[in-house]
Fold these 2 entries.
Entry 1:
Amino acid sequence: MPNSNPLIIDGKVISEKVCDSLKPRIERLAEKGIVPGLAVVLVGDDPASKVYVGMKARAFEKMKLYSETIHLPKDTDRETVLNLIDDLNKNDKFHGILVQLPLPSHLDEMEVIMKINPDKDADGLHPLNLGKMILGVDGPLPCTPHGILMLLKYSDIDTSGKHCVVIGRSNIVGKPIANLLAQKSASGNATVTVCHSRTRDLQSIARQADILIAAIGRPEFVDHRFVREGAVIIDVGVNRVDDPTAKRGYRLVGDVNFDDVKDIVSAITPVPGGVGPMTISMLIANTVYLAEKPASN
Ligand code: NAP
């Protein structure tokens, strides 16, 4: 039976709720003279990265938190980037450091991430923090996967006992969200299947999902053939597609063909306005969390 009234999970509204919930903690820090501060390192001129960095700066400003973007030219050498991270590690103004990915190809992303002091790892991507995540030990969680958990929580979508199918196995989205959903925890307890480009018969596996998470990077790849009636769809993808009718000459679409699946699903995140805003609010949450840690003060 088609569902003409699926829940459209509003990431902007939930993101504001998450930010509101942080305000008492920010006030408590202010009483101690602490303003959570974030350093964002941007290397090069990738247009999408510049947009994301601008959005992060505006979100911090709106929350009256401190943020600074350090913009380096595309050809900045390895030593300069590593030395900058070293300086930021020692700078008390910054409780969090984020390196905007992707980095230009001459830089080793893992080496740069590993240079960040794990106690200042605002993106939760340092191997030490990913290890803590796997072990269920307290630490900053990767922002996008954490944001997905929050979208589900605020939408009263229980994961316990559900079959979650994650399409994508990147270090920043697919692997961590699969792990978090499988954790023995209130936001986990799911049975998780991870799919990727070598998965055979992807559509039939995806159709088994109670909750289907698409983190593929292919515009509108997931259509009704991948979706079981009543499934919850979390669309992580952000893809630019040419659109001469749009002011900028392109529009953003997800990895899911929203119009094709919306009448089958019980709930779905839109693109834009779904996962994206949550990634930013979880970055704020991580920076506040790191500022609260005694090591940072
Ligand atoms: P990624 O590193 O490129 O990983 C893509 C994953 O999709 C890979 O695991 C790949 O499989 C898999 N894949 C590619 N083609 C496939 C196919 N035909 N069938 C099945 N699996 C396939 O991408 P990512 O960094 O995870 O990002 C994914 C998307 O999310 C992108 O659109 C990105 O812009 C977006 N994103 C959004 C946010 C946000 O805040 N909203 C944050 C991060 C990323 P293999 O491993 O086999 O190659």
Entry 2:
Amino acid sequence: MNSSSDGFDMKNRVPKEPGHFITFEGGEGSGKSTQIKLLADHLRKADFDVLETREPGGSPNAEAIRQYLLSGMAEGKGPRAEAMLFTAARMDHVENTIKPALNAGTWVLCDRFMDSTRVYQGMDLDTETVDLLEKIAVEKTRPDMTILLDLPAKQGLQRALSRDPDGIKDRFEKEDEALHEERRQAFLRLAQSEPKRIAIIDASKPEHIVDSQVWKACRRRFGIRTPMGV
Ligand code: TYD
């Protein structure tokens, strides 16, 4: 797609359609980063501009906060402080990366977003606090669609371990299987409460099957027409 950053289509000089915002959620080892790349490939082949980004992070300031959060340094400060750091990172990411891209007509694919705060920090905080933090960080930049890559925690943790057997685990990967399974159930409840936005995809299937299901859900949601077999 011919795009410029001023919100106009370069060829026709008419205001461009804003892009669409798709977030990916799920537990450790659910394949979010692989599936984001695959969906980005489909969208680019269909001639859309695509930005791949992640949370925590996605802008220079938010990446600095990510280092602090994942190192575990914020853990001792308690769940409220951690949630506020995720919120500060998100605010910066939304303002400096996500909104400008959407305004320029780019599709934004984001690895984790506000639902991760609901699930991870939401376990230790009351709903009002989580609602307020979400409102502050996100305002109107809510995802048009969320792909929940669902698989049992045990399988996800095994996958994450086999991918990187000697890797140093981050603050969240160290936690035990029961907690990861609780989070899986919390993601599923969230998806059930917002079925229009959140599509649940079975991530225990082989990568190419998950890919085709994600692409199908996305085509259906946004009415994308592609030639047969693409
Ligand atoms: P990351 O290495 O990006 O892991 P993953 O591949 O699982 O996405 O680490 C991000 C970690 O931060 C992950 O364990 C989930 C956690 N997290 C929260 O607790 N709250 C949040 O709002 C976000 C965005 C992430």
